[in-house]
Amino acid sequence: MTPLSLWRHARLATLDGDGWGQIDDGALLVEGGHIAWVGRAAALPRELAARVTAEHDLGGALVTPGLVDCHTHLVYGGHRASEFELRLQGASYEAIARAGGGIRSTVAATRAADEQALFDSASRRARALMAEGVTTLEVKSGYGLSLEAEARCLRVARRLGRHLPLAVRTTFLGAHALPPEFEGRADDYITAVCEWLPALHAQGLVDAVDAFCENIGFSPAQTRRVFEAARALGLPVKLHAEQLSDQGGAALAASFGALSCDHLEHLGDDGIRAMRQAGSVAVLLPGAYYFLRETKLPPIAALRQAGVPMAVSTDHNPGTSPGLSLLLMASMACTLFRLTPLEAVQGITVHAARALGLRDRGTLAPGQRADFVAWDLDHPNELAYWFGRNPVQRTVFEGKERA
Asked: Rounded distance, CA 291 to CA 61, Å?
């Protein structure tokens, strides 16, 4: 039999159910990187206790599942601080993009960077997120916009998962913006994106496919073509939807069984119904809302009433959400979007995992990955209360404490 390690003397917030799932004087048994048992220490079965070969005292700390950042653009070159100043002076995101700034400026910097430079900068960002308890991270491409550059960015994302104690999921976002060499030929570019996808998938670089369906991005018809190419390869889809206008993108994505629809400030009732029926997760990105000084809120009450699960993510990117604190996003989700603290914490754990199609993490329950965090906090609602403070004491990844 495989030996077990016992993590004891903890106040657990399992998030396994509709509430916090709190267990005082709790314990976790870990076997082979997964949770074998969870409950009150006094209830530990004798036959399991007899197999324990290592014990770890958590010192009475609050313990939650490891955090999941389910929407990031972590691999890129350069930054866009100058555009931040332009927006403060009144320039809109759309005006900057149409003038050749925005995503295109990051594309130029990313194409100019070699793979090692991209890895070095992305790993620093990943470590910042890890320091706050993130154990699973999604990384999108979309700043290369050529087959070679997109492949390079996706290789860097895969490399992060090999070199860091961090689970990384990769998403191909070739349909992020129109590169300069395809100016005026959006349909031709979508044809190219659809042709690149099989090659990238064959190299093992793609876990999911995304697109930017927007009036400054790609039309629903063009997005559909990308999704059809993904479906032909058996790849799940997700979508940047209804951020600046209602293009019907959420309903389109839901018709393809999308894992998630993200942003959603302009989401309408039809999109909500479609997401509910498809089981798509609504990924809320308060960092972008804050940084762009948006005023139209996502339809939180309608999503809640419809029972659409809501995740929360950093949307880390150089142009519209350069934040590297998932805990800050949980706090913003409460103060800006009026989520409850429980909804916000579920949004960075169990619902964020679902937004990546992952059912083996996000809660503390038997069979789940042994990814969990010990916090210097009294109650899990404090994860959405404090900001500017890192309360992490210890992080365990696949059953082993992370240095």
From this structure: 34
How many CA atoms lie less than 13 Å away from 302 in the CB half-sphere? 15
Contact between 15 and 346 under an 8 Å Cβ cutoff? The reply is yes
Give dist(CA 395, CA 401) in Å, integer.
6
Region of 133 (left: φ > 0; alpha: ψ -120 to 50; beta: rest) is left
Q: 331-356 pLDDT, tens per residue?
A: 999 999 999 999 999 999 999 999 99
Residue 197's nearest CA partner among 235, 169, 253 is 235
List 90's β-bridge partners, or say none: none
CA distances from 296 to 154, 264, 290, 396 (A): 33, 10, 11, 38
pLDDT tens by residue, 253-310: 999 999 999 999 999 999 999 999 999 999 999 999 999 999 999 999 999 999 999 9
Q: Which amino acid is at 54?
A: A
Encode pLDDT of 265-276 as tens digits.
999 999 999 999
Mean of pLDDT values over 66-85: 95
Confidence of residue 1 (pLDDT cuts 50, 70, 90): low
β 22-31/4-13 pair status: antiparallel
List beta partners, residue 240: 212, 262
What are the structure tokens assigned to 39, written together? 């409950």
**Contact assessment for residue 243 and residue 267, using Cβ atoms and an 8 Å cutoff:** no
Q: What phi and psi, each to the nearest 5 degrees, are found at residue 20?
A: -70, -30
For all residues of the chain together, what is the average pLDDT? 96
State the burial class of residue 381 (Cβ atoms within 10 Å of its Cβ: 0-12, 13-18, 19+). Answer: middle
Residue 190: what pLDDT? 98
Single pTM value for the model: 0.97
The C-alpha atoms of residue 41 and residue 18 are separated, in whole angstroms, by: 23
How, if at all, do strands 34-40 and 310-312 pair? Answer: unpaired
Within a 13 Å sphere around the CA of 335, how many CA atoms are in the beta-carbon half?
13
